[in-house]
Amino acid sequence: MSSSNGTASSPLTFILTGIPGLPMSSYWMALPLCCLYLLMLLGNCTLLWMIKTDHSLHTPMYYFLSMLSVADLGLCLSTLPTMLAIFWFKSTSLRFEACIVQMYFIHSFSAIESGVLVAMAFDRFVAICYPLRYTSVLTSSLIMKAGGAIFMRGICVVLPVAVLIKKMPFCRSRVLSHSFCLHQDMLRLVCGDVRVNSLYGLTAVILTKGLDSLTILLSYMMIIRAILSIVSQEAQAKAFSTCISHLCAVLIFYIPLIGLSIIHRFGKHLPHLTHTLLADAYLLVPPVLNPLVYSWKTKQIRRRILILLCRRGTQQRV
């Protein structure tokens, strides 16, 4: 088999796989998947619309929440084309260039989401540890600069990953393990020396998700220390309740990520279904659950939703 990345007459293509044990064109799987994507789009777009239109939500916490929704929408739209193509149309082939583009956007938005979670942890840290300085520290200028830095980091750190893998020869089986393109999955099909790619990929993960997780952990250690120093138990509970939504978002994002990293490293003997379900959970669960968690746990958003529903009901009765 040729070791080049395709020619003009025979461009390189990859074969994507669905869920092991299910037929490729499975409508009972495609319909729930469509509902899942609609829920992702509706939930995150609704959050963005409410934050934009309700001036009471124009605070640092909700600005960061809007960034999280943008990252979730990016992840959602990155996987949408291939997932629906497989389960609706039984279309499993994907051109090499398209696979690299999808891989780049998946990893970029994942790094952006991780960075936004750090910014939200800093927001909670300042709000609880230095409440009197909250508005003076988290100014609009700082939030804009932080958002720009987070998005630029996600874009720039992942770019060399795509450039490096584009230059590699693929001469083995071109069947990928998932319904979308991931760097680790593509790298195992390379027939050349992948040490540089692996080293940079590991470095990129450490510089993004590794440092981010440590920063979030350190922030919550200081938050917990500040909460425990409060005399009133009622005030302690109120302070901690402001962190519940963010803690849920952190767990929703990092638990599937850590599980996927562990089984990629140590779980090669596990069934392929385990790898597939964890990868799907890593990319699909956060965009679905984050809007639900923040809508349910955040009083201002919950109140805004109830007001909209009441208005809708009143208009229908009229």
Roughly what is the average pLDDT, rounded to an integer? 85
Strand order of the largest sheet: 1-2
Q: Write the element-wise H/E pattern from the N-terminal end onward.
A: EHHEHHHHHHHHH
The biggest sheet, with number of strands, parallel, antiparallel or mixed sense and barrel status, is: 2 strands, antiparallel
Counting copies of identical and different chains, the oligomeric state is single chain
Helix % is over 70%
| Beta-strand proportion | under 5%
- Unreliable stretches (pLDDT < 50, length at least 5) are none
Distance N terminus to C terminus?
Answer: 70 Å
**Would you tell me the structural class of the helices and strands?**
mainly alpha
Shape: globular
| Integer-rounded radius of gyration | 22 Å
- Tell me the number of helical segments per DSSP (H or I, 4 or more residues long): 11
Describe the structure.
This protein is mostly helical and about 325 residues long. The chain is built from eleven helices and two strands, in the order βααβααααααααα. It has a two-stranded antiparallel sheet. α1 (about 25-55) runs parallel beside α10 (about 270-295) and α5 (about 140-165) runs antiparallel to α7. The longest helix has about 35 residues, at about 95-130.
In short:
The protein is mainly alpha-helical.
